[in-house]
């Protein structure tokens, strides 16, 4: 269905049914991250604010499960372009560190484009822009179910592309943020 403007609603997946330990060695943390990526979500009561022409989810199972609660029997497109920003331990150590420390250090390395992390901040921004270029190509209503940190980067990328909306820095599980484009005819006239 062709529309006069594009609406993109970003939704963070539902809470993951996973119990983290308080501390991990580097190898234990790697394994916990793999387990978390395969864990199921806990159903939440969330309602969508509008109808959507296209639903797009990441390649991680928790987004498909979230979509099945939000829009049962919905057709969708799946892409790894909106997967969560991957994490890795900040060093290789058998010594246990607190979960908060491990997370903080990994995200600090990501933000400072440290090669120890699987993806840098610059690469994440490029991936967000590639997603916009490849998937948000028609003036339709899009529902995008993804992951907290990546969605915050994607929200800023949408604002940089002229969308109106509110970028959320720390998405809560099930939280939605909607962005509206300026119609293309108006963009061409400017």
What does this structure look like?
The mean pLDDT is 92. The protein has a domain of 126 residues: Rossmann fold, CATH 3.40.50.1240. The protein is of the alpha/beta class. The strands form two sheets. The chain has a six-stranded mixed sheet.
Count of alpha and pi helical runs? 6
CATH H-level superfamily title of the domain at 7-18 and 43-85 and 119-189: Phosphoglycerate mutase-like
How much helicity do the residues have? 25-40%
Q: How large is the radius of gyration?
A: 18 Å
The backbone outline, from C-alpha atoms, is: globular
Instruction: Give the strand content.
Output: 15-25%
CATH topology of the domain at 7-18 and 43-85 and 119-189: Rossmann fold
- Indicate the CATH architecture of the domain at 7-18 and 43-85 and 119-189: 3-Layer(aba) Sandwich
Oligomerization state = single chain
